Amino acid sequence: SDGWQRELGVLIPGKPDARDPFVFGWQGAWRMLVAEPPPWDDATAFPARLRLYASDDLAQWHDLGPIGPQ
User: I need a surface site. Which of 26, 38, 41, 62 has the fewest CB within 10 A?
Assistant: First the structure.
């Protein structure tokens, strides 16, 4: 009823394991935090961390890099 519509497609290309997105406005643009779990089959991989993305239109997202690990 508020005009929101789901669009089919991958939110973050190349990041199929990214989960729990949190989108928020920041200085006239958009930011998104996603959880980035380590690969399950590689014990030496990076620990779980967050990754930050930026967008001007909520359709095209640009990777700003990881935050963490924590």
Answer: 41
Q: Which residue has the tokens 């991958």?
A: 10
pLDDT band at 67; cut points 50, 70, 90? confident
Lowest mean pLDDT among 8-12, 45-49, 54-58, 59-63: 8-12
| 21/19 Cα distance (integer angstroms) | 6
| Residue 51 tokens, joined | 């990754």
What is the rounded CA–CA span in Å between residue 28 and residue 7? 22
Bridge pairing between strands 19-26 and 49-55: unpaired
